[in-house]
């Protein structure tokens, strides 16, 4: 009896530590568990691992996990969740492979982590394995269990398998806010916004509306990001959905809270309805720097640079100091409007620019045609020890590819990778692009996505460096992406590389035999080389495949 009371007391203390992220107190409780010989209490040790994970001390949790005399599925979930939150793919799979049994929660954790890290091929393989898990759950009758059903919902939505998710949702005898939130967010992610709001109405009818669910639906509204279109149709409907949520918040009396007001402001700004945002903002008795930042971001998104400047001046006149987010929003507004000079002044005024600031400035240069400046800024970024991410690499590789269109003969001088380069403009940028691409994995452990492969294939292809293109394509995991093959085919046509062009065309035929573009490009290349028999072969293939040539292409 005394032992049970001690266990209950320790469990309550651990829950308090978890709620407050009290790592040091947790270490004290761990010592108490060891002293009272309760290390064999799997429940208590699981809670300790959960605490260490929440506090960012994954290794401490792993040491406990390895020493556990008795583990259950929750032990594995606790340490797996810790690794997945860190995006530690290697250790996560090590634990996942050791699991004696995997359920919907296990697959949910691993698939989510793979998706976040751009490993779509592995996530897809996990998805098919997860379907088998679903089949087993159905046979055992677990699919009607709310906990298992919600986990299955989450997995299917992350894999954008909407119909499977709808089926799981329908099989559940009851729903909670987790069920509805998973469905709403998944439907919005699949551009099925009206159905997401139908879910919210059903949620309202089932009387599940609470603070958590309202916060979730506001988040869903904000993710729609649909402004009013030219005809005033589609966008207006989504603004009306948002207005309904606004009315419900008024009805339940939540609008006295600054958090809810900021959430509403953010929703209207994301929907592009700045008139509604202004009315709400001007009616507020209390605002914060977050409120101002939302307004500035909304104006910036709509390319209203003058309104951005006015809002910034008004903010300062009210005695509110701009923060880093304010500066990033101001920077984005200037660059979107093509005001590079003002944007650069804002950027240079930052003592330690954040990654978002670096990416905004790089994107501004690239989108406004200042590709050389983008490359030079990227060099400065490395010199200042700022760590790039996938977005950074996509921007700089795109600039390198775009510069391949320009005439050569110019010189660039940039400190890149701690080396001074002085070389022919075009070949130099190709080498720079290739070096950047290789550094993604080798130096930064960032897995290239399809966009990155497209950029480097385009860069090398324009330069006629097809041996290097072949090496990259052989290792590329995105062979079902038609854009990569279209880019390669276009470069092959320019340089007359028939063999590689044929390979690219074959891949495009495999992916979409009804698309006339690859046939036309291939035929144009053959005709430019006076290979009329090959032109005839392409025409015959088009006839057999019943492909109609789109207007605007020339065969000769």
From TrEMBL:
Pfam families: E_motif, PPR, PPR_1, PPR_2. GO terms for biological process: plant organ development; RNA modification. PROSITE patterns: PPR (PS51375), PROKAR_LIPOPROTEIN (PS51257). One of its GO terms (molecular function) is RNA binding. PPR repeats lie at residues 72-106, 176-210, 288-322, 354-388. Signal peptide: none annotated. InterPro entries: E_motif, PPR_At4g14850-like_plant, PPR_rpt, TPR-like_helical_dom_sf. Keywords: Repeat. PANTHER family: PENTATRICOPEPTIDE REPEAT-CONTAINING PROTEIN. This is Uncharacterized protein. It comes from Salvia splendens.
């Amino acid at each position: 009896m005394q032992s049970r009371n001690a266990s209950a007391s320790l469990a309550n203390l651990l829950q308090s530590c978890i709620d407050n992220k009290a790592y040091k107190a947790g270490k004290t409780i761990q010592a108490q568990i060891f002293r009272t010989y309760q290390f064999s209490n799997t429940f208590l040790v699981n809670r300790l691992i959960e605490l260490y994970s929440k506090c960012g001390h994954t290794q401490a949790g792993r040491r406990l996990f390895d020493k556990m005399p008795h583990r259950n599925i929750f032990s594995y979930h606790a340490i797996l969740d810790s690794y997945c939150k860190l995006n530690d793919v290697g250790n996560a799979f090590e634990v996942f492979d050791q699991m004696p049994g995997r359920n919907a929660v296990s697959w949910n954790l691993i698939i989510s982590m793979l998706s976040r890290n751009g490993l779509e091929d592995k996530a897809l393989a996990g998805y098919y394995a997860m379907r088998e898990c679903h089949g087993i759950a159905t046979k055992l009758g677990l699919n009607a269990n709310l906990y298992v059903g919600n986990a299955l919902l989450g997995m299917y939505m992350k894999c954008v398998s909407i119909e499977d998710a709808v089926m799981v949702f329908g099989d559940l005898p009851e729903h909670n806010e987790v069920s509805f939130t998973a469905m709403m967010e998944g439907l919005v992610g699949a551009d099925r916004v009206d159905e997401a709001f139908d879910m919210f109405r059903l949620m309202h009818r089932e009387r599940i509306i609470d603070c958590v669910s309202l916060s979730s639906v506001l988040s869903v509204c904000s993710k729609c990001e649909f402004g009013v279109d030219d005809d005033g149709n589609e966008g207006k409907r989504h603004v009306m959905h948002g207005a309904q949520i606004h009315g419900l918040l008024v009805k339940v009396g939540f609008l006295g809270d600054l958090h809810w007001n900021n959430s509403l402001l953010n929703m209207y700004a994301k929907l592009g309805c700045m008139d509604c945002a202004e009315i709400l903002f001007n009616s507020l008795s209390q605002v914060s720097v977050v409120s101002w930042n939302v307004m500035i971001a909304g104006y910036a998104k709509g390319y209203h640079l003058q309104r951005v400047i006015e809002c910034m001046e008004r903010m300062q006149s009210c005695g509110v100091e701009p923060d880093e987010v304010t500066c990033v929003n101001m920077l984005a507004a200037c660059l979107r409007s093509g005001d590079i000079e003002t944007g650069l002044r804002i950027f240079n005024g930052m003592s330690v620019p954040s990654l978002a600031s670096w990416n905004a400035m790089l994107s501004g240069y690239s989108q406004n045609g200042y590709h050389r400046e983008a490359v030079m800024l990227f060099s400065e970024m490395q010199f200042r020890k700022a760590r790039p991410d996938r977005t950074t690499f996509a921007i700089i590789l795109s600039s390198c590819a775009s510069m391949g269109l320009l005439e050569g003969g110019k010189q660039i001088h940039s400190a890149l990778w701690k080396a001074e380069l002085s070389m022919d403009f075009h070949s130099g940028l190709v080498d720079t692009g290739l070096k950047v691409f290789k550094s993604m994995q080798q130096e930064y452990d960032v897995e290239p996505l399809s966009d990155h492969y497209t950029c480097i294939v385009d860069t090398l292809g324009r330069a006629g460096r097809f041996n290097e293109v072949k090496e990259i394509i052989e290792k590329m995991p995105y062979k079902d992406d038609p854009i990569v093959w279209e880019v390669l085919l276009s470069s092959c046509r320019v340089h007359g590389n028939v063999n590689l062009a044929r390979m690219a065309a074959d891949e495009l035929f495999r992916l979409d035999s009804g698309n006339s573009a690859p046939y036309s490009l291939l035929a144009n290349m053959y005709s430019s080389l006076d290979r009329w028999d090959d032109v005839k072969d392409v025409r015959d293939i088009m006839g057999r495949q019943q492909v109609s040539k789109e207007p605007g292409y020339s065969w000769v």
